[in-house]
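Quick start: read one record
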Amino acid sequence: MSFTGMKIWLSAVAILLSANAFSQDLIARQAPVDRKLKSVDSLLIQKQLKLEETYPYPAFDLYPDWNKTSVHNYAGVKLPLEHQIDLTGFCMPTTNTRITSKFGPRRRRMHNGIDVKVQVGDSIYAAFDGKVRIVRNQGRRVGYGLYVVIRHNNGLETVYGHLSKQLVKEDDYVKAGELIGLGGNTGRSTGSHLHFETRFLGVAINPALIFDFTKQDIVADNFTFRSRKGSTSSSTTLVADGDGVIRYHKVRSGDTLSRIASQRGVSIDTLCELNRITRKTILRPGQVLRCS
């Protein structure tokens, strides 16, 4: 081997040794970082477990107990004068869009939810993250039939009635969009449909104020629950349009102030005043307007 060739060979060996030393040094420096990351992960897991031990059910600060017998009996519980309910992270309980019965009074009783047309066997999903409180059967031709009640992290409780099959158990934690049951025709039902309720501390809220089934979306990112001063869940049995509710509208392509005012049953001037805008304000898709 020539002297020049020897120099080239020695240089190559030196480079390889240097690269190996650098790699070893990098690994050595990375090891403490990996240990720190593992330590952080462990602490987060421990913190989460501690929270679950401290708070055995969602919305622990709002609800007095965790019972598996009563769907909506919170008699005597003091209602907050105002409470913001976060609606983000939602999932529509069904992909079906046809409403067959609205929320409101019927001839002999109050209809505390809405009925959405589904076929027997259609998928029914959890509307928000939460914990399953009740999985029961009210019997043939009575009430909800096969039903599921979930209490959510945002303070809402949702009821899913007339199912043909329940796919969760009591005390199960579920995520928004998780399959919880199949559509059916059990209980007091004259045809297959999903009876869907949204409640806060036992107070029934019109689901149409929260979910737009036709557009498969929520009405706004937040819902403001308001109660009368000094009221309890036994004295406030229902929250209807314009009674204790701040209503919102999420602007969509093609919406105008006059169209929104007509849909929401308010005047254009009221919309302008509530949202501090003028009749000439350009509306943007996704913008949220207060309507009451």
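Residues 167 and 180 are 5 Å apart (CA to CA).
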